[in-house]
Amino acid sequence: MGSSSSPSCLLVGVFLFLAVVVSAFPSVVQAGITRHYQFDVEMANVTRLCSTKSIVTVNGQFPGPRIVAREGDRVAVRVINHVPYNVTIHWHGVRQLRSGWADGPAYVTQCPIPTGRSYVYNFTIVGQRGTLFWHAHISWLRATLYGPIIILPQLGVPYPFTKPYREVPVIFGEWWKADTEAIIHQALQTGGGPNVSDAYTINGLPGPLYNCSAKDTFKLKVKPGKTYLLRLINAALNDELFFSIANHTVTVVDVDGVYVKPFDAETLLITPGQTTNVLLHAKPYYPNAMFFMTARPYATGSGTFDNSTVAAVLEYQNPSRSSPAVFAKNLPLHKPTLPAFNDTSFAANFTGRLRSLATARFPANVPQTVDRRFLFTVGLGTSPCPKNQTCQGPNGTKFSATVNNISFASPTTALLQAHFFGQSRNVYSPDFPVVPLMPFNYTGTPPNNTLVSNGTKLVVLPFNTSVELVMQDTSILGTESHPLHLHGYNFFVVGQGFGNYDPAKDPAKFNLVDPAERNTVGVPAGGWVAIRFSADNPGVWFMHCHFDAHMSWGLKMAWLVLDGELPNQKLPPPPGLSVGSPRRSVAPRRPRRSPLPWRSARGGLPPRTDTSTRPTWRSSSPCPRGGRLAYELYPVPAQQEVPCCGIRRSPMSGYFHPPDNEAFSALAPRRKVLDVTVVLYQIRCASPDVPVMKKSTPRRQSMNLESRARFSC
Ligand SMILES: *[C@@H]1O[C@H](CO)[C@@H](O)[C@H](O)[C@H]1NC(C)=O
Ligand SMILES: *[C@@H]1O[C@H](CO)[C@@H](O)[C@H](O)[C@H]1NC(C)=O
Ligand SMILES: *[C@@H]1O[C@H](CO)[C@@H](O)[C@H](O)[C@H]1NC(C)=O
Ligand SMILES: *[C@@H]1O[C@H](CO)[C@@H](O)[C@H](O)[C@H]1NC(C)=O
Ligand SMILES: *[C@@H]1O[C@H](CO)[C@@H](O)[C@H](O)[C@H]1NC(C)=O
Ligand SMILES: *[C@@H]1O[C@H](CO)[C@@H](O)[C@H](O)[C@H]1NC(C)=O
Ligand SMILES: *[C@@H]1O[C@H](CO)[C@@H](O)[C@H](O)[C@H]1NC(C)=O
Ligand SMILES: *[C@@H]1O[C@H](CO)[C@@H](O)[C@H](O)[C@H]1NC(C)=O
Ligand SMILES: *[C@@H]1O[C@H](CO)[C@@H](O)[C@H](O)[C@H]1NC(C)=O
Ligand SMILES: *[C@@H]1O[C@H](CO)[C@@H](O)[C@H](O)[C@H]1NC(C)=O
Ligand SMILES: *[C@@H]1O[C@H](CO)[C@@H](O)[C@H](O)[C@H]1NC(C)=O
Ligand SMILES: *[C@@H]1O[C@H](CO)[C@@H](O)[C@H](O)[C@H]1NC(C)=O
Ligand SMILES: [Cu+2]
């Protein structure tokens, strides 16, 4: 950056070749209704395992309230923060088509909601049916801040399986007697592994296998001969779970809100972040017995884990007794047998049985061709112990965790805001590595040097890029299954295996016909998994291990998917901006002394047809050598606030939405491999009056602007 005394305009043509396919969004979505919820985030005292603690809840409930919606409905949740923590809520698995502002991960799509403030999450549920869940997405608050999302089919549309008599959410959690925020803060200080939990819970209850918890047992009461839909959700923080019901097999019909080809199982595996709908066919007769439903971990890492077992009880209503329902006591109690903690072959077998339903009504739209291939290692590592401190990680270091050996450094500005307002410089860099920078035998002898690097790096994808991603576990500090969760998308699990992924041999075995479609997948311990998705949802999308311990250590990264060319392929502006009192959309004040530095095509940009956003288009003084400049002024909706962190507001007229230089700099070198449909020009303008900078300092501003007409300056 240099300074210049007189405004000059330097034009650098950057030809971007963006593959734009006609909108991938369903053109006919049966109009749903809007479901309004108010979530008051407040403290509540809860007693478990003989000890009481104050926990963060929604509306004082633990687990939190259910969100119930039909496919096609809009959901608007006003979250009001009454607790002394920053809070965000994530609607886990909801695709958030063009509503990335409502996704929820702190410092990724939004700034946290401070104490005393509120935020409206506003999204529609499109093309999903089954069970998802909501949870806090900041620090470890999701330990107690979670609840089910139940997505029913559209009215009049049946399930593609036996209509259940009743539907019951079964949500697994993890309970610590101590304060979980203190536990993770201390662990990050010392570098050691965080303390493991004291119990698992089912619907918030630990059950009779724990001390003083017999009264805290979830009971599922059923009638003989009826079919029940259990909506299983693993909301535990750090543990994959095996689950089984004594003397009963269940039929798996849906995972992560997508129907699967039904199959029977005595035992299920469910990782944190996954959901599974199963049909429980109650025995046709009164069995004169009670049955435990138990869950305990599938644990592959070398660290310690909570090896306890949560139990709930399945009870039959005795039909021979008169109503009201009678549930006999002192009946024989059967217990299921769960696999060994380290039964990786069970895990591989179970996940290998999952197949998309893949019918005409519920197709599996697996990308058949691939535009970009990625290989990411996922696993642990170490970072140095600060001087003057002793650390409790491996050999006196601190635990760390990475994707491609990069431990994600959380920004203090929300990535999506930085991107949208063209202020991504020094917030993120667009150079997340496509493959590991230092290849090694990932599942063989680990390298001696386990030190990781860190950074806030993103992968930038043009709209509609077809992506294939192989995630490869590493043996650094021990192989381990990592449940990787992608925001904003479902992906297809096209292949998995043990050892190192072999790009020459393994793709031949991929299932491109009916692979499971989901949002969270366990990378096999000492193995790899290949997924495909089509980047049809613009925004910044977090991808991370759904073990909170690993996420805290940095096993996370983000994808930036750019807008497409059509209006319905663009991310609308944020729901509101906390810029003081709401203002009508008015003509911007002109700069007093010099023209605006941002210039675009002659005549400015054409107004968009998308009426949901409707920015005000303004054009101002012409560029010295022709051309015009244009910018958008977004009206501030009343009664909405959006926490902002680190985004600079122009003193002139609010927030600008220029293209994102960091993102484009990542794509420019790739232009040869993309198709031309959009031409972008990089314009370097110098001005003594750059709004977002200090007014007194003349600076040169570099900016990309999109144009549809040729621009000459
Ligand atoms: C929790 O219990 C403490 C100590 O008894 C009490 O001071 C506090 O008000 C209670 N909090 C709530 C939300 O009920
Ligand atoms: C809470 O979030 C706000 C932004 O919304 C941020 O400025 C502040 O530093 C956060 N506080 C803590 C303790 O992280
Ligand atoms: C949610 O968004 C829709 C579409 O932008 C808008 O019409 C509606 O008013 C919003 N609802 C709330 C409660 O903000
Ligand atoms: C439950 O299973 C056990 C062992 O598999 C068997 O002994 C018992 O008879 C079964 N009981 C019922 C009521 O199905
Ligand atoms: C759980 O771990 C503890 C401590 O390592 C051990 O003593 C106990 O036997 C284990 N329990 C089970 C069921 O494996
Ligand atoms: C699983 O653990 C058992 C006992 O701890 C051990 O004998 C066995 O080798 C382990 N299996 C695998 C596959 O690691
Ligand atoms: C799982 O195991 C069963 C029985 O052991 C076997 O028949 C089936 O083929 C296995 N499935 C997969 C996908 O490995
Ligand atoms: C480190 O410890 C030494 C001796 O204990 C002390 O003199 C020094 O100030 C400490 N440095 C820091 C950065 O704390
Ligand atoms: C710790 O140090 C020992 C001996 O120097 C070495 O054998 C071991 O591999 C190291 N462990 C880790 C995790 O670096
Ligand atoms: C990687 O390590 C494994 C386990 O030690 C070994 O079997 C395999 O041959 C190694 N692969 C290569 C390419 O060296
Ligand atoms: C790793 O350390 C071992 C023992 O210290 C040494 O023999 C080996 O050469 C080292 N490997 C590399 C790649 O540096
Ligand atoms: C990130 O890496 C830099 C060096 O590149 C280092 O100074 C810094 O301490 C690291 N941060 C963390 C959190 O490890
Ligand atoms: Cu992990």
Automatic annotation (TrEMBL):
<dbReference type="InterPro" id="IPR017761">
    <property type="entry name" value="Laccase"/>
</dbReference>
<dbReference type="InterPro" id="IPR001117">
    <property type="entry name" value="Cu-oxidase_2nd"/>
</dbReference>
<feature type="region of interest" description="Disordered">
    <location>
        <begin position="570"/>
        <end position="623"/>
    </location>
</feature>
<keyword id="KW-0964">Secreted</keyword>
<dbReference type="Pfam" id="PF07731">
    <property type="entry name" value="Cu-oxidase_2"/>
</dbReference>
<feature type="compositionally biased region" description="Low complexity">
    <location>
        <begin position="595"/>
        <end position="623"/>
    </location>
</feature>
<dbReference type="GO" id="GO:0046274">
    <property type="term" value="P:lignin catabolic process"/>
</dbReference>
<keyword id="KW-0186">Copper</keyword>
<dbReference type="Pfam" id="PF00394">
    <property type="entry name" value="Cu-oxidase"/>
</dbReference>
<keyword id="KW-0439">Lignin degradation</keyword>
<feature type="region of interest" description="Disordered">
    <location>
        <begin position="692"/>
        <end position="713"/>
    </location>
</feature>
<dbReference type="Pfam" id="PF07732">
    <property type="entry name" value="Cu-oxidase_3"/>
</dbReference>
<protein>
    <recommendedName>
        <fullName>Laccase</fullName>
        <ecNumber>1.10.3.2</ecNumber>
    </recommendedName>
</protein>
<dbReference type="InterPro" id="IPR002355">
    <property type="entry name" value="Cu_oxidase_Cu_BS"/>
</dbReference>
<dbReference type="GO" id="GO:0052716">
    <property type="term" value="F:hydroquinone:oxygen oxidoreductase activity"/>
</dbReference>
<dbReference type="InterPro" id="IPR011707">
    <property type="entry name" value="Cu-oxidase-like_N"/>
</dbReference>
<dbReference type="GO" id="GO:0005507">
    <property type="term" value="F:copper ion binding"/>
</dbReference>
<keyword id="KW-0052">Apoplast</keyword>
<feature type="domain" description="Plastocyanin-like">
    <location>
        <begin position="41"/>
        <end position="153"/>
    </location>
</feature>
<keyword id="KW-0677">Repeat</keyword>
<comment type="function">
    <text>Lignin degradation and detoxification of lignin-derived products.</text>
</comment>
<comment type="similarity">
    <text>Belongs to the multicopper oxidase family.</text>
</comment>
<dbReference type="InterPro" id="IPR008972">
    <property type="entry name" value="Cupredoxin"/>
</dbReference>
<feature type="domain" description="Plastocyanin-like">
    <location>
        <begin position="167"/>
        <end position="318"/>
    </location>
</feature>
<keyword id="KW-0732">Signal</keyword>
<dbReference type="InterPro" id="IPR034285">
    <property type="entry name" value="CuRO_2_LCC"/>
</dbReference>
<keyword id="KW-0560">Oxidoreductase</keyword>
<dbReference type="InterPro" id="IPR033138">
    <property type="entry name" value="Cu_oxidase_CS"/>
</dbReference>
<feature type="domain" description="Plastocyanin-like">
    <location>
        <begin position="443"/>
        <end position="563"/>
    </location>
</feature>
<keyword id="KW-0479">Metal-binding</keyword>
<dbReference type="InterPro" id="IPR034289">
    <property type="entry name" value="CuRO_3_LCC"/>
</dbReference>
<dbReference type="GO" id="GO:0048046">
    <property type="term" value="C:apoplast"/>
</dbReference>
<dbReference type="InterPro" id="IPR034288">
    <property type="entry name" value="CuRO_1_LCC"/>
</dbReference>
<dbReference type="InterPro" id="IPR045087">
    <property type="entry name" value="Cu-oxidase_fam"/>
</dbReference>
<feature type="signal peptide">
    <location>
        <begin position="1"/>
        <end position="24"/>
    </location>
</feature>
<dbReference type="InterPro" id="IPR011706">
    <property type="entry name" value="Cu-oxidase_C"/>
</dbReference>
